[in-house]
Amino acid sequence: MIIIGIAGGTGSGKTTVVNKIVEALPEGSVAIIPQDSYYNDQSDLPLEVRKQTNFDHPNAFDWKLFSHQIEELKQGRAIEQPTYSYITCTRLSETVHVEPRDVIIVEGIMSLYDKELRDQMDLKIFVDAEPDERLLRVIVRDMEERGHPLDMLITKYRNVLKPMHDEFIEPTKQYADIIIPNGGNNDKAIRMMRQYILGQLREQKRMQGK
Fold first, then answer.
1. How far apart are CA 11 and CA 133, in angstroms?
2. What's the CA gap between 113 and 174, in Å, rounded?
3. Which of 21, 95, 143, 174 is the most exposed, fewest CB within 10 Å of its CB?
4. What is the Cα–Cα distance from 31 to 100, expressed in whole angstroms?
5. Are 41 and 89 in contact, with CB atoms under 8 Å apart?
6. Could you report how far apart the first and last alpha carbons of the chain are, in Å?
């Protein structure tokens, strides 16, 4: 099993990188564990308080559960991955059953932030992109998919996304084994990464066959 952490700012192209890795690997060999599933359970708090959650701050995440479930997968045990609602701003009762796979991809803005989680990874990747490019991607995505007005997105970027990125996300770049500039558009870097992962899988199978 190979555990891969993929981090990077909002709009950096993480999802594109993940999809391109998955496309190159055998069908059914990958499990993707999104960090967004591990926001704290806030069901004990009033909705008005929950709506004030800063989803770009490390304190918003249940790091203990996140790290524990990755360790369970690493030990060959299935997990019940939590699900989260941005509407109610808390964890849902439903879970997602995830079986161990040859490749586990841990993906999220701060997937390289927590040391305990980071130490379980075999390969750590930071997807990088210029701030103005990330801003444009966020604006286009949130206007088209979520119907958010432009002025609200600009205010959110100035007051939340940019300061949180600078303080908590950008510094995790130092832990990355590979930094992919230009996000998901860097086909050469992604091809090299896919070849590395395939090579590691072949090596593991060869060692298991001895």
1. 8
2. 10
3. 174
4. 7
5. no
6. 17
Q: Are strands 79-85 and 90-98 parallel, antiparallel or unpaired?
A: antiparallel
HEC letters along 55-118 = CCCHHHECHHHHHHHHHHHHCCCCEEEEEEECCCCEEEEEEEEECCCCEEEEECCCCCCCHHHH
Contacts 24+ apart (CB under 8 A), 204-208: 204/1, 204/2
DSSP per residue, 134-183: HHHHHHHHHHHHS---HHHHHHHIIIIIHHHIIIIIGGGGGG-SEEETTG
Both structure tokens of 62: 């249940």
User: Which SS3 state, helix, strand or coil, does residue 35 take?
Assistant: helix
Domains, the chain: 2-208 (3.40.50.300)
Residue 171: left (phi > 0), alpha (psi -120 to 50), or beta?
A: alpha
